[in-house]
């Protein structure tokens, strides 16, 4: 099961804090070893499989281990085994144990209530339905005997509840438990009515209900003077309905109405149809985890998203033989995403069209926290007859996203039978060693900049190609400064960055420091304040700032100390973003590392002076006569500074010189005054970033790939 081992390896990298924080004392089984490997295996069985259902296959050994008894539950003078699966779940679901701790005074959770949650919800949430055997169902169906209290008007023929029902009863708030006192026939009747009418629908417990209860529910009762025979389940539902909504069962018409309702409910689409279905084992998993549905974007309707078959067993090969398909590219990425890597795939489409390369777009969701309203490609996506019809897959997204959003969710089916190319952005000069196995999923990698190309050349033996990214500003929306509430008479420097995109890498503090060094605040006559010289300002366009985030609050406070600094913290369409760049005078980027630097290229295309750290992806297009590169020194990237990077990777990035950046910001004002400068910059950038140029390079590489595919008989 090589693919399963690879999936588990990737999951361990993506979720280290989830499984490495598990401690021996947190687990009810005292015999469980505390090694990291066993910690991870426990996490994988309980949570990893549920997060990535494609890989949810359980071996017979795993089933046996999870089903072993590690203790007992005491249920009102009755004991049932506590399985290791239930015990492990309590170690990972602090939210569940906390929910059922309140009635215990908050010190410990009610194990019976947690067991009720496990059988009603947890077993499905964590994909343990295979553990529910006939023996389990029989154990859950055993009656719990309650001594019946004396009642003035007892209900006749009310059976004792089962173990399963009692566990569900333990989940209820005390006020509901008091209304459904299991020591009284009325209380038990009310509880059974609630259990079969409401609880089964909410928790899908019908899978655990045995035939004896189904027969009991279908039993016909003679009701009132009408002598109508009505099934018991209808009477249970009747007892919970509002009095005003109940038909009068003393009349033939009222009895007929309830009978008609009961027959309707037993129909194929009725809520009680399960009574007529045989009890099947193993219990089928409710369709609550759908990896494809997770990728859907509700904002764009029926978009064409990646569709692969879901399975409980992993595929058998990582690199199977290519199957014959038409020559062309399946461009796979965040086609609707309003972020830089979303623009990467949109520009890849432009490059393919310029070079007349056949292509198909496959949209992948970048996650719920990213806005996905760029519908530039919508018609081409929705008009596609097939999802991945061509022989070559090009994954235009970070390699880590390709792993987490495709391989872990859809398995090898995404890659099986295709020639796979990773057009992966990455910002550092080294690839994280722990992620070397990601290269196993692709046949070659493309680099969007010379900087990334050098990194891939040193990181993998797979073929790597320099495939420069295309940039376009043809959709710029001309807007005046009033639209953005910007100062009309100031020279404005602009920096655009994502607050979630690792602030240490984006380094916005350096932009503020350099700006204030270049244009110092003048002392004010008013004590404690500084005056703000006119004619200059710094605009910070920010995405994804969280209002209550301490880092954001501190940053906001820092900016508020200088009235010349303006924050734009709102979502803008791409056309508006380009309009913002156009209406400002210069662009500044104090980054410590960039894979490419798309906003810098866009500013150049709009004729704006670019002041930027002269390191990483942008350094190779920072034309000395046309841009304002900033000196720097290389410093180590410490573990925790950037995702997936460990100390052993020995990664470095740039620390830009604040003094030099300040000088370059002053120099930018002089460049802007040169009328010829903007034209020369635009002309150079249009040639450098033209989609036609990128398309030509892609086409040249595809000529070589076509030879490979023909040798493999992979072209139809």
Helical stretch tally: 28
Supply the CATH architecture of the largest domain.
3-Layer(aba) Sandwich
Largest sheet: 6 strands, parallel
What is the CATH superfamily classification of the largest domain?
Glycogen Phosphorylase B
Integer average pLDDT: 88
DSSP E strands, number: 20
Give the overall shape.
elongated
- The figure for the number of domains is 3
Distance between the amino and carboxyl termini? 31 Å
Strands ordered across the widest β-sheet: 6-5-7-8-9-10
And the CATH topology of the largest domain?
Rossmann fold
Helix amount, in percent?
A: 40-55%
Radius of gyration: 32 Å
Q: Which secondary-structure class do the elements indicate?
A: alpha/beta
Under CATH at level 1, the class of the largest domain stands as Alpha Beta
Please outline what is shown here.
With 716 residues, the chain is an alpha/beta fold.
Summary keywords:
single chain; 716 residues; alpha/beta; Rossmann fold; six-stranded parallel beta sheet; 20 strands; 40% helix; 13% strand; elongated
Please describe what this structure looks like.
With 716 residues, the protein is of the alpha/beta class. It has three domains: 58-209, no CATH class; 291-466, Rossmann fold (3-Layer(aba) Sandwich), CATH 3.40.50; 483-689, Glycogen Phosphorylase B (Rossmann fold). 40% of the residues lie in helices and 13% in strands. It is elongated, with a radius of gyration of 32 Å.
